[in-house]
Specification:
816 residues, alpha+beta, six-stranded mixed sheet, five-stranded antiparallel sheet, 17 strands
């Protein structure tokens, strides 16, 4: 995997020209919303993948890389839109410049080019998930189980598992549908054979008796058994077999059709059930709209992070109202899906009855043809075609709605005059001269054989389709069990890391947190503990800030699982914007503790968190850029690698003492608040949380003095001369810094107003700045690669050591 040493951006998105030196270290890009920070994220995304995630996916209709990748002033010149990354292969240490232009987005240049470095770049490109925004991360937490499974499996590069599962499920469904059709055909051929034989059921002994009676009439040998290979008409010469009209059988066939037309009880009942479901659908046309927009609304809920609709950009009064509206639409689409399934089930029942009716009509049409009644034959044949069209239309929701007229009428479009036509055909059959006993026996056996063959074939087809259904079901079940088992083991590994990360992030209020990831039937359920009161979905009781924290922790756990030691780079675009400030420092500590080798490139609009990243040692003072504002013509205005001392120096260079004093006071209050937290400084509680600078200074100074005294006592108890010398040096340094600070604190007292500061000169205020700089240096690691605040280990009142993040400072507070 690679790390990024430098970024050069030219005429790309909202940036005209920009160079950032990262040095392969974690880096912060911060500034107000709309200042152009996301352009840096888009540039890294584009350089590595040749694409911009922000321009793809739901809600990106009409957006293209070619048209909207270049800066708006160079929108017709995609060759000018260029991003170059100087990257380093972590394993080999090789460096090269990766360059990509919008005009040739699918390819990139690497200079110098090497197989090892190109393989590392390609590996990074295969994992676009290393670039993540809050809109993407929250979908792992607040998402339907089926959707969450897709998202997580996509992140884990397991999409193929879901695709295979879906294919196997579709195969199983198709085999079930085919088996149902085969069952219907068996029932139809069974009925046709029984009707011809004029028996209530196909009992072998009774059928043999009837068949042998007719064979005796023809002087043919008796059959001793009936099996699949039996020919009921064996012995009849081929010429005699050409005529297969049998008057009694034909009369029963036509009578069965007339009864079905006159009293279609089963068909009418199936149509009535379908009619009711269709009426429910037609009563609310929005149901169909809900079905069509189901995926869109689901995506909208995943993207929702403020009161602006991510689907249409409409601004709502508040985010909760918008979320409730989209949730209501999604629930409505769930109801619509249930109704659709019910509609299709009832349509299947109607199709089975229509198939049985078509079988009767087809047989009657053949009889009409044999008896030379073309007008009845044509009427019946035409109706057969109409019934086929009707049955095929029932295979889709739109087709069912199109056939609403027939369904609502409670019949299947019986042609005008059909009843009289069937009656006349029956009369024609009955008027047909009686056949001789020999002729009757011959045609009887011929038709019996035809229907026996059809019945045998239908049974054989049912058996084949039943076997196919069994195999498909077995394969699907085995695959699901194997997949669920493997994924469960995988998710349990991720689950442990996820819980551990979240506990560290929220150690103050959820140190016993645990999570459960359970996979079943292609879905991934996420349940989380809520203060020991039970396991619930994340959105049930946890705040939005806690949900964001879960999203970040789950993402980190998943990415570590995917990449292992190859996890060297991550770009986090405003992913902690709703995590409360008390937990952001812990997030910095989480990244430092569990991912010390990962280069995090982090954007944020929150100046407090930008400062916390620096004070915690996650980034160095130089590893940051502040975006001030943005204009179309110039792009972002920014400051490179400055902390507040640099800004104060700049103010004094302009002799703007009031600005320098105000800046010093604001930043001292922020820094001392962080220090008071890291050393467990005691301060009088204020319900509004608005602590004065004097309160913070006293808390930090007093606590630090106690800690050094405790350290001196511990060193003396062990007679540790090195530790004693180190503590004595720190005490002496503290005494001088505190003396200087107390002598100059008056200059930034609230009682000193702007008009007083205006009377100060630069030389008057420089000693104030230097005194405070030395005071804060007491609590800063001297290692230039660390520069973190000192902190204490152990609980408040029971501290065990004073240390910095890199360990260069590590003084025991525990006496012998």
């Amino acid at each position: 995997m690679i790390k990024i040493e430098e970024i050069r951006i030219s005429e790309f998105r909202g940036i005209r020209e920009l160079t950032l030196t990262l040095g392969g270290k974690s880096f912060a890009v911060w500034g107000p919303n709309g200042s152009g920070k996301s352009g840096v994220v888009d540039a890294i995304d584009f350089a590595l993948t040749g694409n911009i995630a922000r321009l793809t996916g739901t809600g990106s209709g009409g957006l293209t890389l070619a048209k909207h990748g270049p800066h708006v002033h160079r929108r017709d010149d995609p060759n000018a839109a260029t991003v170059a990354l100087r990257v380093r292969d972590v394993a080999s240490g090789e460096t090269a410049v990766l360059t990509r232009t919008v005009k040739s987005a699918k390819t990139y240049m690497l200079e110098p080019d090497s197989a090892r470095l190109r393989a590392s770049v390609d590996r990074a490109a295969q994992h676009p998930e290393i670039i993540l925004s809050r809109r993407e991360i929250i979908r792992y937490i607040v998402s339907e189980p089926g959707k969450r499974a897709q998202e997580v499996q996509a992140l884990l590069k397991l999409e193929q598992l879901g695709s295979i599962r879906s294919v196997l499920r579709n195969v199983q469904t198709r085999t079930e549908t085919a088996l149902a059709a085969a069952e219907s055909q068996v029932a139809a051929t069974d009925e046709a054979l029984r009707r011809h034989l004029d028996v209530p059921k196909l009992a072998t002994a009774e059928v043999l008796t009837i068949i042998n009676t007719h064979r005796s009439t023809l002087g043919l040998s008796h059959l001793t058994q009936i099996n699949d290979g039996t020919d009921l008409s064996s012995g009849i010469d081929e010429d005699s077999a050409l005529s297969s009209f049998n008057k009694p059988s034909a009369a029963r066939d036509v009578s069965a059709l007339r009864l079905s037309v006159d009293n279609p009880a089963d068909l009418a009942s199936a149509l009535e059930r379908l009619k009711e479901s269709l009426a429910t659908l037609n009563a609310d046309p929005e149901i169909l709209d809900a079905l069509r927009t189901r995926e869109l609304v689901s995506a909208g809920l995943d993207l929702l992070d403020d009161a602006s609709c991510p689907l249409c950009d409409t601004q709502w009064s508040d985010a909760a109202a918008l979320q409730a509206h989209l949730a209501m639409k999604l629930n409505r689409s769930n109801d619509a899906a249930t109704l659709q399934a019910q509609l299709r089930h009832h349509a299947e029942s109607v199709s089975v009855e229509v198939a049985a009716l078509r079988s009767l009509v087809t047989t009657a049409a053949s009889i009409a043809s044999q008896l030379g009644v073309p007008e009845v034959r044509d009427l019946l044949t035409s109706w057969t075609d109409e019934l086929l069209v009707f049955a095929n239309a029932l295979g889709s929701t739109s087709g069912i709605r199109e056939q609403g007229g027939r369904i609502n009428s409670g019949e299947v479009g019986v042609p005008e005059g059909l009843g009289s036509a069937v009656s006349s055909l029956l009369a024609k059959v009955q008027a047909h001269p009686d056949q001789t006993a020999t002729s009757n026996a011959r045609t009887y056996l011929i038709i019996a054989q035809e229907r026996w063959r059809a019945f045998r074939q239908a049974r054989a087809e049912r058996q084949r389709r039943s076997a196919a259904r069994t195999v498909a079901g077995t394969i699907y079940k085995a695959y699901c069990e194997e997949q669920d088992g493997a994924l469960t083991a995988l998710y349990h590994t991720v689950e442990a890391s996820f819980s551990d990360f979240y506990c560290q992030l929220n150690s103050d209020d959820e140190a016993a947190f645990k999570a459960q990831l359970e996979t079943s039937a292609g879905k991934l359920d996420l349940s989380v503990d809520f203060h020991g009161l039970g396991m619930f979905p994340p959105a049930a009781y946890h705040s939005e800030g806690h949900q964001d924290g879960m999203g970040v922790c789950l993402y980190l756990a998943l990415l570590r699982q995917i990449l292992g030691s190859d996890f060297q780079l991550a770009v986090l675009d405003d992913v902690v914007m709703s995590i409360d400030t008390s937990h952001r420092r812990q997030f910095c500590n989480l990244l430092k503790k569990h991912f010390p080798d990962v280069q995090f490139i982090i954007t944020t609009h929150d100046a407090v968190w930008a400062r916390q990243m620096q004070s915690s040692g996650l980034i160095s003072r130089a590893a940051q850029v502040r975006f001030l504002h943005w204009t179309v013509d110039a792009g972002p205005a920014l400051e490179h690698g400055k902390d507040f001392w640099d800004h104060i120096d700049a103010d004094l260079e302009k002799d703007d003492v009031p600005a320098a004093a105000a800046r010093l006071r604001r930043n001292l209050e922020a820094s001392l608040a962080d220090l008071a937290d890291s050393v467990h400084g005691q301060i009088a509680y204020r319900s509004d949380g608005n602590y004065e600078l004097n309160d913070l200074v006293s808390a930090v100074k007093g606590k630090y003095r106690k800690l050094l005294n405790q350290a001196a006592k511990a060193a003396n108890s062990y007679n540790n001369s090195i530790a004693k010398a180190q503590v004595e040096a720190l005490q002496a340094r503290r005494a001088q810094a505190v003396l200087d600070q107390e002598g100059e604190q008056w200059a930034i007292n609230p009682a000193v107003h702007f008009n007083d500061w205006a009377n100060f000169s630069k030389s008057d205020f420089l000693p104030v700045v230097e005194a405070w700089k030395q005071f804060l240096s007491l609590f800063t690691c001297d290692n230039p690669d660390c520069e973190s605040w000192i902190s204490t280990t152990g609980s408040a009142g029971n501290e065990t050591a004073i240390r910095c993040d890199c360990g260069a400072l590590n003084i025991s507070l525990v006496s012998k």
